[in-house]
Design goal:
Keywords: ATP-binding, Cytoplasm, Kinase, Metal-binding, Nucleotide biosynthesis, Nucleotide-binding, Transferase, Zinc. The structure is a single chain. The chain has 8 helices and 8 strands; from the N terminus they run E-H-E-H-H-H-E-H-E-H-E-E-E-H-E-H. The protein is α/β, with parallel strands linked by helices. Helix 1 crosses helix 8, helix 2 crosses helix 4 and helix 6 packs across helix 7. It is globular and about 55 Å long.
């Protein structure tokens, strides 16, 4: 099965991608993993990407797409995959469609994790990170009454990208870039929305239920 997973920051894409890919026995492919593999492996594409990443710039579409194409061509992705974080926009989606068409395959389904804006802000702005062990706690979900890590005694702090104003900006960027992408896949009749609120296990059940009619 060939799946794309989309959703706003804080929707739980990384967690759900891992569970779904494991259930289907297909590789979970994220742009972050691809970037790291190419950079650490010293590939030509990795060297190109590193130049942009070191400057804090976005890696251009053509480099990202070339990396994704190479990864999808690997043996473990031949019979299926789950893409997390790609495509991010309509041009990338159109290119992905062309790549798959060259191999005489197509996407089976695009799962959109749906969660309202207030919940995203609550999830992300409530996160606190330990400055020693790196564990992430949540001021609501973990019932923390202090700023001390229960695991190692380290100090808990709020990362800059978890601050409410930054979260709101990330949501605006997501809506600007990804709303047209969601519509693109809706027009392709392969988009299915999944309610991403509630316990992780419940969200996973909803996602797997949506996939069940496609499983062979």
């Amino acid at each position: 099965m060939r799946i794309v997973l989309v959703g706003p920051p804080g929707a739980g894409k990384g967690t759900q991608a891992q569970f779904i890919a494991s259930h289907l026995s297909v590789p979970k492919i994220s742009t972050g993993d691809i970037f790291r593999a190419n950079v650490s492996g010293g590939t030509q594409l990795g060297l190109q990407a590193k130049q942009y990443m070191d400057r804090g710039d976005l890696v251009p579409d053509e480099v990202t797409i070339a990396m994704v194409r190479d990864r999808l061509a690997e043996d473990d992705a031949r019979d299926g995959f789950l893409l997390d974080g790609f495509p991010r926009n309509v041009p990338q989606a159109e290119t992905l469609k062309k790549i798959l068409a060259e191999w005489d395959v197509r996407l089976d389904i695009v799962l959109e994790l749906v969660v309202d804006e207030d919940e995203v802000v609550r999830r992300l702005s409530g996160r606190r990170t330990c400055d020693k062990c790196g564990r992430i706690w949540h001021v609501d979900f973990d019932d923390k009454q202090d700023d001390i890590c229960d695991d190692c005694g380290g100090h808990l702090f709020q990362r800059d990208d978890d601050k409410e104003e930054v979260v709101m900006h990330r949501l605006e960027v997501y809506k600007h870039d990804t709303s047209p992408l969601v519509q693109f896949y809706a027009d392709e009749s392969i988009l299915v929305g999944i309610d991403a609120t509630g316990p992780v296990e419940e969200v996973t059940k909803r996602a797997l239920s949506a996939l069940r009619p496609l499983e062979k």
